[in-house]
Amino acid sequence: MIRTSRIAAILATSALAAGALTACGGSGDDSATPTTTNGEGGSFVVYSGRSESLVGPLFEQFTAETGITIEARYGDTAELAAQLVEEGDRTPAQVYFAQDAGALGAVAAEGLFAPLPAAVATTVPVNYRAEDGTWTGVTGRARVITYDAQQVSADEVPDSIFDLTDPRWNGQVGIAPTNGSFQAFVTAMRVAQGDDVTRDWLQGLVDNDVQTFEKNGLILDAVDTGQVQLGLINHYYWYQKAAEVGNDAMRAQLHFTAPGDPGALVNVAGVGVMANAADNAQAATFVEWLLSPATQQWFVENTYEYPLVPGVAAVDGVPPLDTLRGPDAPLAELADLPGTLTMLQDVGLL
Question: Among positive and negative, which fits the CA dihedral 330, 331, 337, 341?
Answer without folding.
Answer: positive
